[in-house]
Amino acid sequence: MEAKLFQPYQIKDLALKNRIVMAPMCMYSSHNEDGMVENWHRTHYTSRAVGGVGLIIQEATAVTPQGRISAQDLGIWSDDHLPGLTELVSLMKEQGAATGIQLAHAGRKATVDGDILAPSAIPFNDKMKTPLEMTTQDIKDTVLAFREGAVRAKKAGYDVIEIHGAHGYLINEFLSPLSNKREDEYGGSAENRYRFLREITDSIKEVWDGPLFVRVSAKDYHEEGLDIEDYVTFSKWMKEQGVDLIDVSSGAVVPARIPVFPGYQVKLAEKIKDEAAIDTGAVGLITSGLQAEEILQNNRADLVLLARELLRNPYWPRTAAAELGVDIEAPKQYERGW
Q1: Taking the CA of residue 307 as centre, how many other CA atoms within 13 Å lie in the half-sphere pointing to its CB?
Q2: Is the pLDDT at 1 greater than 90, yes or no?
Q3: How far apart are CA 204 and CA 165, in angstroms?
Q4: Pair 314, 308: CB distance under 8 Å
Q5: Concatenated DSSP letters of 231-252
Q6: Dihedral of the alpha carbons of 27, 33, 35, 40, in degrees to the nearest 10
Q7: For residue 71, pLDDT beyond 80
Q8: Which helix H or strand E contains 11, and what residues bound it?
Q9: What is the pLDDT of residue 2?
Q10: Domain 23-326: which topology?
Q11: Residue 164: strand pairing partners
Q12: Are strands 132-133 and 55-62 parallel, antiparallel or unpaired?
């Protein structure tokens, strides 16, 4: 049986050369605190493209300065960011990888100076800042910031946009009743809590016709929080809005104990794929070619996202190919050692 991991994947007009995706991981390397691309980003991302990854999704890139997870995060809130981002896209594409960018706002988990924003004035924990509850105007401004981020992503040449709706950041905070205690049209019912993501998705779709992913935390790991069934419903709504793929992670909206083991989130991706009838990406302690192949051969997900394993081994696709008995093309410059 041919290894599915190295089969092409078509999504809209984009053809990925394989099913291997580098998951977005913050690098905290914009050292002037201006959100600009630096040499580290050029080296880090390009090396994974050389290594054979099909799609690289750039780290959480903030749509507002206030929405950074840390002051060293990359930004896309200004046209000043475009030259660096455009160069980064060119470097990755030159080495054969498709390029994605994760548009993000940290909400109450931002650690920058000044006021931070959230759906409700509830801190993440007793060590973090208490956020301001967003006004309706704050919400409109943030929706617009995501839209403008998408416009810049298109200008920079990215192939995929991923909306960061996971890990306890702003969109996730609106979705979960643990962090959203609002009494207006953005709180209460599931439909109201979803409204913020709905408006962001609609605003991005107005300016972006390429593949659109959404990363979700499909389980809150809290008895009063959301679970996979809630995210099946949300995923059906996202599909109706034109989202192409759900990148399925879990946790981090509130402090919680998470049972972690190899592939621990794959079942969540599988359930959303089956019950919402939408393509999914599986992520979370996926480390070997055989493990990735099992996920794909059994139709548990459509793409496999790797994070820490690609930090350890930029050439993981070659390692996986050897494990699965597949010959993959080497970069011309490396043929004599491949």
Answers
A1: 15
A2: no
A3: 14
A4: no
A5: HHHHHHHHHHHT--EEEEE---
A6: -40
A7: yes
A8: strand 9-11
A9: 84
A10: TIM Barrel (3.20.20)
A11: 215
A12: unpaired
Q: Is the pTM of this model over 0.90?
A: yes
Summarize pLDDT for 27-41 with one digit per residue, the tens. 999 999 999 999 999
Angle between helix axes 39-50 and 82-94 (nearest 10 degrees) is: 20
The candidate with the shortest Cα–Cα distance to 253, out of 285, 200, 215, is 215
Q: Which residues contact 129 (CB under 8 A, 6 or more apart)?
A: 108, 110, 111, 116, 123
Find the largest Cα–Cα distance for the chain. Answer: 64
Half-sphere exposure (Cβ direction) of 119: Cα atoms closer than 13 Å = 28
Q: Which residues neighbour 160 within 8 Å (Cβ) at sequence distance 6 or greater?
A: 11, 14, 55, 57, 98, 99, 100, 101, 210, 211, 212, 213
The predicted-structure confidence for 150-184, as pLDDT tens digits, reads as follows 999 999 999 999 999 999 999 999 999 999 999 99
Pair of tokens at residue 99: 């390029």
Examine the pLDDT at 246 and tell me if it is beyond 90.
yes
Between CA 300 and CA 274 the distance in angstroms is 8
Strand pairing partners for 60? Answer: 102
